[in-house]
Write a structure and sequence with these properties.
Helix content: 40-55%
CATH architecture of the largest domain: 4-Layer Sandwich
Number of strands: 14
CATH class of the largest domain: Alpha Beta
Order of helices and strands: HHHHHEEHHEHEEEEEHHEHEHEEEE
CATH superfamily of the largest domain: Endonuclease/exonuclease/phosphatase
Length: 373
């Protein structure tokens, strides 16, 4: 009887191990599977950290029992080297200092979430001044902001652009307005500030724009040479407060477990369809650029996605080069969500990377130092 139970247990564990092995094999193909067509595979990519943990657990389990079945999770892990390689960074982010090293060029990228405007409207309080104080101390050469908010109605909102141009010392900027209300009194969009002269600017609107902000680029002159700073905000999933609540309660209540997937899967699918073509437009822009480029932005997609690999291609990921850990940039839902990035042309040396975990926006600000060629 004991022998039969052991055999049954072994078969059960083998079957249980086959499932994450097959799923990981699919995830390994995600970078080459068009997310608009194979959205279900992209969904599996969101669960890659969990699949990775399961495979490591199965590998340890089989090795403890000295079973030949250890080859299954081992091969799966070896084949996932590319996905694992973009998930973890082994640099030394702790060495990133507030004070820049002499001769370096600092870029800060942040989805500022309308300067905490939603929180101000709901609760009457805002982190706006905290955000401005943090940025004033960053000593950046360039700021790239997504979901930037500017108001002409000074009775309700203090103007923001003047804080940078007149108080912080960033006389050059380009504001690509995505939305306006009340005849331009309230404007939001993508904005780039620079200490260095902007000699040219460009804007590329996405063809299938539902809730994405444009791809914006500025050519700036530094020490007599021209460099291109670009930033973008790709399609959002558009989760609302009910969706976030359902995700947090998933598995805890029967209602959330049944209803949450029905609510969020269609939104995820739509976002993958939009982002896949937006990523192709960004890649086409980068391929047509001759000058060295630094690209930042909120891609709304994880590192093992079609979006990430399509855009990055041969560019350097500042976090992977100089960061440490998993680099979470989105405060909600999961500790594994790195969806904001700073990429650099291979001709540009990356000196350091930092990520400030502050509760001011739903995204964390990213900072990177470069040595320009």
């Amino acid at each position: 009887m004991a022998v039969k139970l052991r055999k049954l247990a072994k078969k059960t564990f083998i079957i249980l191990n086959i499932v994450p092995t097959v799923l990981m094999a699919i995830v390994c193909l995600v970078p080459w599977l068009h997310a608009g067509k194979f959205w279900w595979a992209a969904l599996l990519g969101l669960g890659f950290p969990l699949l990775l943990a399961l495979q490591v657990g199965f590998l340890i389990f089989w090795l403890l029992f000295r079973s030949r079945w250890a080859f299954m999770p081992l091969i799966s892990l070896l084949l996932s080297f590319q996905q694992i390689g973009v998930l973890f960074a082994f640099g030394s982010e702790s060495e990133f200092g507030v004070k820049k090293k002499k001769g370096t060029f600092r870029v800060v990228s942040w989805n500022v979430s309308l300067w905490d405007e939603y929180n101000r409207q709901k609760k009457g309080t805002s982190y706006r001044q905290n955000m401005l104080d943090l940025l004033a101390k960053s000593d950046a050469d360039v700021f790239c902001f997504q979901e930037f908010f500017e108001s002409k109605n000074q009775q309700k909102h203090k103007p923001t652009i003047v804080e940078f141009t007149q108080k912080m010392g960033y006389p050059y900027h380009y504001f690509a307005v995505e939305g306006e209300r009340y005849k331009g009194s309230y404007r939001s969009g993508i904005l780039i500030f620079s200490k260095h002269p902007i000699i040219d600017s460009m804007r590329i609107r996405f063809r299938n724009n539902s809730r994405a902000e444009s791809l914006v680029a500025c050519d700036i002159r530094v020490n007599g040479k021209v460099y291109r700073i670009a930033t973008t905000h790709l399609q959002s999933v558009l989760f609302d407060s009910k969706d976030y609540e359902g995700i947090s309660q998933f598995g805890k209540t029967e209602k959330a477990t049944i209803e949450t997937p029905k609510a969020i899967v269609p939104k995820l699918r739509r976002a993958y369809v939009y982002r896949s073509t937006q990523a192709e437009q960004v890649r086409a822009f980068l391929d047509s650029t001759d000058v060295p480029v630094i690209l930042t932005g909120d891609f709304n997609d994880v590192p093992n996605s079609y979006t990430y690999f399509k855009i990055r291609k041969d560019m350097q990921d500042a976090f992977l080069e100089k960061g440490f850990g998993m680099g979470r940039t989105f405060r909600k839902i999961s500790p594994t969500l790195r969806i904001d990035y700073i990429f650099a042309d291979p001709r540009i040396a990356i000196e350091g990377f930092g990520l400030k975990k502050v509760p001011y926006s739903d995204h964390y600000p990213l900072m990177a130092d470069f040595v320009l060629p």
